[in-house]
Automatic annotation (TrEMBL):
Lineage of the species this protein comes from: Eukaryota, Metazoa, Porifera, Demospongiae, Heteroscleromorpha
Name under which the protein is recorded: Tetratricopeptide repeat protein 37
The organism of origin for this protein: Amphimedon queenslandica
Superkingdom of origin organism: Eukaryota
Gene Ontology BP terms: RNA catabolic process
Keyword DNA repair in record: no
Length: 1109
């Protein structure tokens, strides 16, 4: 109780101090109260007032806040805080928000008191603006605008704000409009123009928000009146904007008429032609609308594009641009602009927004369908639009989208369901039925439907186009022309029409120049129309304008999506290939394959490009892929075979050619290719001394070539290949060269005949003569081959006179070849070889020929070797050696140079060098003479008892044996070679093979008769019979040798007797040998004799003989 009295006393003292203006004392009294009650409301209010009067604003605000916190319902602290903000304006946002809260709280307590409300709204309105609460600011200014207490400045300020920030209802707008009209007359001209301009701008914004047509009409009228009063460029633009909105409302439903554009035309004329260059924004859009109505489509499109650049956020510009480009059939631009327009749809007034949005979607979907690459997206959009709005145009697009996506049954269902609705629009029902029949391939019925559509709506270009299109594809191509011409007259910007007209001029009228004009117009209008571009390029190529065609194809690749540009890339690849730019061609073909990896034709093109570039393996793989995709493709399989032949896979090539011939047995290139592969296989077989295989291959080649020349007897290459095949076997033995030849080639009936080497060479003569006859004897290479054929025929001819005649003909032919091709070094070489034949022996001509050849080609190892052989024949050993050395330096792998030097070394008696030369040859490649010579030298070295290391141990034996084995394979009746082979087998320990070889050698030698080597071979045979356990045969052979008085027989006979366990007879034979031997061999014979004594258990004699050793 005492404390309460003290607080009251302190409050009284504080008030008294305030009345005395002793503000510090008042603060002191309040603080004393706070000792008793620190939340005392009145004490904080008084303390705050004292601080405020002392201009201590921060402390005053703090005290008021404490008081409000302790009791928000009391008004004193709020009023105190309001007084503070009245005297000291709030600075930052937090203070302004606090001031707004303070004034708003007080405003709630003075409702009904007009003067106080007016004053508080005057304070609140600018604060709302400062903190960004524009909606509340608009409410405050709207109150001030209609308040009877408002002065002129307050009204002006309120009106300016409201016009600059149009956020209001229709009722509020009426208040603003009324205040504006009553207040306008009291303003100065400058201020009047400012507010009037703001009013027009606010009207335009308000128009965008209103949907009521009466209100909109009233607003439009108001704006028009205000703009006519001001007469400024800006107001003209406003009027244009109004007219554009009106036109868009019409244009979204139907085409514009001249009446729709009267106001725009007047405004454009008023602006004047002198400012035409400076037009932008709404001026461009307005002018564009005028051009569009006048059917000046290209100029309209140009201005529309400029308008969208000038006003990128203006939906009006994007919509007009879409309409213009749709008229120009520039579908890609329509798609892009429609999407941008839909994004900017918010800039349009409500009263046209829905219609324009609907039209945007219609344009977008139609462009997507006509462009052809957005069919699924168009269908999705159509489904959504169909569910929202089901008018005829939406149904029409929906059905087209379903047909474009292959949903024929669904499209038919919708047509049937909506038939009554579709009948309301002329032509649409018949049009859609026509498209349905086109999708099913029934062009006759489709044409009838489009004709009905034309009867209902004759001015619609698209119906005439489809009538012409269906006539074209139902076979009435001539009748399609009038329809297409009519379509072009009604719509001169439809690329599809001019594309079809191009087809007519190209395929029916056969006028490529007119076709080019039609295709060019179609492609210029719509660069994405790939079909027109491809056709244009093909026509230009037909006219010889290849570079122009190439430029067209490049444009297609730039404008069309990859799936449609593949044909252009294919033709660009063909262009590059024709110009030998193979890398570029390959890149193009790979781009085509990236779109469709299953196109066998493109794989073939890729293979050809790789082949032309020299990438044979890559080419083969490409053709193999083409064959995999199209197993019936003869070309692909043939190319695989040809490449396999080219890279040396001859067996695989034969198999591939065979597969081609299984598809078409009379395909001459495959017959020739397989025959050529057989011919090359025969050459390889000859090089590997597989002569029997070579004969088989030549026989197979001749069979194929016989079929080929029967089909194409005028092909020079076929006759030449027959000659080459016959000539290829010249080096093999007569006994092996037994070839099966088709009887037709020999001039007989059908069947096969086996002929020998001579007959084969005669067939070669006949074939070469046929090929020469076909080329009028002007081919030096055919003359060369014919000359060689005569040369080899002379070698197998038994009659020397005939051989000489052949050689003379050969000489004449090769001279003719030189006359035709004097720089042909091979011809000169052949002339030298023929001239130095043992029958002609024209060594001077041979030398001249070889030297002439070397003048043309100085690094030819073959010619140097031949020249060395010529010198060697004429005993000019030094020059021969120099020539052979030069041959070796030109081509170290050419064996003849080494063989020649080996012969030179043999002449000088340098056996070791001879053997080394022959060894080099055996390491390089097989050669008949070197194989025989090397085997001889190895055997000789062995019989002389040389140490094994002198023969490089086993390696020399193997090399010699392999070489002589090949020689024997080629010459199976050469008894001396067989003997050498047997000796080499024997030294390798291969006794069975050795015995067989020596047996053959002995057999052939006996057949030949009179050979001085017979005892030697018999001796070798007897020894091997003994070694292999054939003792009786061996002893019989030795007895025959004894009868022939052959030398050095008894030692072998004694050894054979010992091996046959005839020890007593062997001992007698050894005893005879001991008596007649030289001292060096006596110990060995005594040792053998002791072994015989030991074998018969005569130990005493054995001991005595061993002591003698």
């Amino acid at each position: 109780m005492a404390a309460s009295k003290e607080v009251k006393s302190l409050l009284k003292s504080a008030r008294s101090a305030l009345d005395r203006e002793d503000y510090p004392e008042a603060i002191k009294q309040c603080q004393a109260i706070f000792w008793h009650d620190d939340t005392h409301y009145l004490a904080h209010v008084l303390c705050g007032k004292a601080h405020l009067l002392l201009k201590e604003v921060g402390e005053a605000r703090h005290q008021y806040r404490i008081a409000i916190t302790s009791n928000e319902k009391e008004i004193l602290a709020w009023k105190g805080l309001a007084d503070l903000y009245d005297k000291y304006s709030p600075e930052d946002k937090d203070e302004k928000l606090e001031a707004i809260k303070t004034y708003s709280h007080i405003l709630n307590t003075v409702t009904g008191d007009g003067e106080k409300e007016f004053n508080l709204y005057c304070k609140l309105a600018p604060l709302y603006v400062d903190v960004g609460q524009l909606e509340k600011a608009a409410g405050a200014y709207l109150y001030l605008l209609v308040s009877p207490s408002a002065s002129g400045s307050i009204t002006e300020k309120s009106l300016l704000f409201l016009l600059r920030h149009p956020q209001y209802s229709q009722t509020q707008w009426q208040l603003i409009e009324g205040s504006y009209k009553s207040f306008l007359s009291s303003l100065t001209e400058t201020k009047r123009i400012e507010i009037q301009t703001l009013f027009i701008s606010s009207c335009m914004e308000w128009i965008k928000l209103v949907e009521d047509e009466e209100v909109i009409d009233s607003l439009l009228k108001t704006v028009q009146e205000e703009c006519e009063m001001l007469e400024s460029k800006e107001n003209q633009e406003t009027l244009l904007q109004l007219e554009i909105w009106k036109c868009l409302k019409v244009l979204s439903i139907q085409p514009l008429t001249e009446e729709d554009l009267i106001a725009i035309t007047l405004l454009l004329d008023k602006r004047g032609e002198e400012e035409e260059e400076e037009r932008e924004g709404v001026w461009l859009i307005s002018h564009c609308l005028v051009l569009l109505q006048s059917r000046k489509i290209k100029e309209a499109c140009t201005l529309a594009s400029k308008g969208t650049v000038s006003l990128p956020d203006s939906c009006e510009g994007w919509f007009v641009s879409c309409v213009c480009h749709m008229k120009a059939h520039d579908y890609e631009v329509v798609i892009n602009n429609a999407r941008k327009g839909l994004e900017a749809l918010g800039s349009l007034p409500y009263f046209i927004r829905r219609q324009v949005s609907h039209s945007f979607h219609i344009l977008l979907i139609e462009a997507q369908l006509l462009e052809g690459n957005h069919k699924q997206e168009a269908l999705t959009s159509c489904e959504k639009l169909y569910s929202e709005s089901c008018d005829c145009h939406v149904i029409r697009l929906y059905v087209k989208a379903l047909i474009a996506n292959g949903m024929i049954h669904e499209a038919e269902g919708i047509i049937n369901d909506k038939a009554s609705l579709l009948n309301e629009e002329k032509g649409i029902l018949n049009e859609l039925k026509g498209h349905l029949f086109v999708a099913r391939g029934d062009f006759d019925q489709a044409h009838d439907k489009f004709q009905l559509a034309i009867n209902e709506c004759p001015q619609f270009s698209e119906y005439h186009y489809w009538a012409g299109y269906t006539n074209w594809y139902n076979g009435n191509r001539t009748k399609s022309y009038p329809s297409l011409v009519k379509a072009g007259q009604l719509d001169s910007y439809n690329p599809a029409v001019f594309n079809m007209l191009g087809h007519y001029q190209r395929h029916v009228a056969n006028d490529i120049n007119r076709a080019v004009k039609c295709y060019k117009k179609a492609f210029t209008i719509h660069p994405g129309l790939t079909e027109a571009g491809i056709s244009l390029g093909e026509c230009l190529s037909a006219l010889g304008e290849e570079e122009s065609a190439y430029e067209v194809y490049l444009k297609i690749t730039e404008k069309s999506p990859p799936t449609e540009a593949r044909e252009a890339w294919l033709r660009i690849g063909l262009y590059h290939r024709r110009h030998s730019q193979y890398d570029e061609a390959i890149k193009c073909y790979l781009k085509v394959l990236h779109q469709n990896v299953s196109d066998s034709n493109v794989w073939e093109c890729l293979g050809e490009a790789y082949l032309s570039r020299g990438s044979n393996i890559a080419a083969m793989k490409a053709f193999e892929k083409a064959t995999e995709l199209n197993p019936q493709s003869i070309f692909s399989q043939y190319q695989v075979a040809a490449i396999q032949q080219l890279i040396g896979l001859l067996s695989e090539a034969v198999a591939s050619y065979t597969r081609v011939l299984e598809l078409q047995d009379d395909y001459v290139p495959a017959l020739k290719g397989r025959a050529e592969s057989y011919y090359k296989l025969s050459l390889l077989a000859i090089n590997n001394v597989l002569d029997s295989k070579a004969v088989s291959y030549v026989s197979l080649a001749l069979i194929d070539l016989s079929k080929a020349v029967k089909l194409k007897p005028s092909f020079i290459s076929l006759w030449k290949l027959i000659g080459d095949s016959c000539l290829s076997l010249y080096s093999i033995a007569e006994t092996v060269a037994r070839v099966s030849v088709p009887s037709e080639l020999l001039g007989n009936d059908e069947g096969l005949e086996i002929i020998g080497k001579k007959a084969l060479l005669e067939l070669g003569l006949k074939s070469y003569k046929c090929s020469l006859h076909l080329c009028d004897g002007k081919s030096p290479y055919l003359l060369h081959n014919l000359a060689l054929n005569y040369y080899h025929l002379a070698e197998v001819e038994d009659d020397k006179d005939v051989s000489k005649e052949y050689l003379e003909i050969s000489l004449k032919l090769i001279k003719n070849a030189i006359t035709l091709s004097p720089r042909g070094h091979t011809h000169w070489n052949a002339l030298g070889v023929i001239a130095m034949h043992s029958i002609l022996k024209d060594y001077a001509l041979a030398q001249h020929s070889f030297i002439s050849s070397l003048k043309i080609e100085p690094n030819n190892a073959v010619v140097w070797s031949n020249l060395g052989a010529l010198y060697l024949i004429n005993d000019n050993v030094k020059l021969a050696h120099l020539s052979f050395e030069r041959s070796q330096s030109c081509d170290p792998m050419y064996s003849q140079g080494w063989i020649g030097d080996g012969l030179v070394a043999e002449i000088f008696g340098k056996s070791e060098e001879t053997r080394n030369f022959l060894e080099n040859v055996s390491e390089l490649q097989y050669h008949d003479e070197s194989a025989l010579g090397y085997a001889y030298w190895v055997c000789k070295t062995l019989t002389e008892g040389a140490p094994s290391h002198s023969l490089k141990a086993h390696q020399s034996l193997v090399q010699a044996r392999d070489g002589i084995l090949k020689y024997v394979r080629r010459y199976p009746k050469d008894s001396l070679a067989l003997n050498l082979l047997g000796l080499l087998y024997e030294h390798e320990g291969m006794m069975k093979q050795a015995k067989e070889s020596i047996s053959l050698s002995l057999s052939h030698m006996k057949e030949e008769g009179g050979s001085g080597y017979l005892p030697l071979v018999m001796h070798n045979h007897a020894r091997l019979l003994s070694v292999t356990g054939s003792h009786s045969e061996a002893l019989s052979c030795y007895e025959s040798l004894v009868a022939m008085e052959a030398p050095d027989v008894r030692l072998g006979q004694a050894l054979a007797l010992f091996r046959a366990r005839k020890f007593s007879e062997a001992a007698k034979m050894y005893q005879l040998l001991v008596d007649d031997c030289d001292p060096d061999s006596k110990s060995q014979l005594l040792l053998a004799l002791s072994m015989c004594s030991f074998a018969v258990e005569d130990n005493e004699s054995c001991k005595n003989l061993l002591f003698k050793v």
